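Hi V.,

You were right to ask for the full record rather than a summary. Here it is.
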Amino acid sequence: MHLVPEERAHRRPIDEHTVCAAVAGIGEPQAVRVWADRFSLLGEPGRLAVLLAVHRAGPIAVTDLALATGISETAVSQILRLLRVAGAVTAAKEGRVVRYRLDDPDLARLLDSVPPLPGGH
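Predicted structure:
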């Protein structure tokens, strides 16, 4: 059981090979934390809607995101602030308009696996 951390090595497995495969499958604790943080961004319907819109519509302004998602501009701005801090989106100013785009390729691949609902709702 070469992959089991020392503090758990005293425990007796049923199948050592399976335990090692599971440990390898989990990976580094920090990587698990990073993925858990990504998944938490997707866990609230408003954030998920904003992320999907930003990802699928390309660079988009807060006003347009509010119109597309049905979420108030204030709430969209708050969501985008959280997403920027998390490193999921970036903003680029074009004159007086700020447009947001997805800036996390791993998150983009996750969002690609979310099918749109029929009728766009």
